[in-house]
Amino acid sequence: MTEVATPVRLLDAAEELLATAGAAGTSVRDVLRRAGVANAAAVGYYFGGKDGLVAAVERRVVDGVVADRERALAGLGGHAGVEALVDGWVRPIVALRCAGRGRYAARVFTRIFDQPPDRWEANGAAAVRATAGRYCAALAPLLPHLDGRELTWRWQCVTATTDFYAIGALDFGEPAPGPDDVDAHVRRLVVPGAALLRADPAG
């Protein structure tokens, strides 16, 4: 096993375990066993211990979603419609869920904003917020009936619905989605999300 492969295997193994057992139910020994790493000191060497490993897993999830959202936004250029922008925002989370990673990923996105703001740069919350600002800036000319505050509020509602989807709270007994369900599930979020954004301001 190469030096490059070892930390990646540890991250992959930790993410799988954290998704099912949470941080409290995941031990360093379990991670090493799942990763196939015999060196008991590997987690400490690469990540400084269990807390550092958990933080690295979380930041990897956040960075991956942020990168996917930024690529989607850049790919739309200056001609994006409301549906396309909602699609670019929700699709990375749907892809995680359909790959079996959604429940843990949604918890990650909940926790990063629960930490003190001085931690946001380190844990990815600042990057998520900055990307949300770019999406709202792209939406603003398409939704002139919404002021900046209302648009931000509605975008947070789209985000919250997406996170609820990711943890399975909207399933109502449906089977867990698989890789072939991405487009259909994205559409199920895009339709109400776009409708919410287009609705007239309340009262």
UniProtKB/TrEMBL annotation:
Q: Name one Pfam family in it.
A: TetR_N
What does the UniProt keyword field contain? DNA-binding
UniProt xrefs under InterPro entries = Homeodomain-like_sf (IPR009057), HTH-type_TetR-like_transc_reg (IPR050109), HTH_TetR (IPR001647), PsrA_TetR_C (IPR041586), Tet_transcr_reg_TetR-rel_C_sf (IPR036271)
Residues forming the PsrA tetracyclin repressor-like C-terminal domain are: 90-190
Where the record annotates domain HTH tetR-type, the positions are 10-57
Q: Which Gene3D superfamilies match?
A: Tetracycline Repressor, domain 2
Question: Does the entry feature the keyword Protein biosynthesis, yes or no?
Answer: no
- Asked if the record carries the keyword DNA-binding, the reply is yes
The name under which this protein is listed is TetR family transcriptional regulator
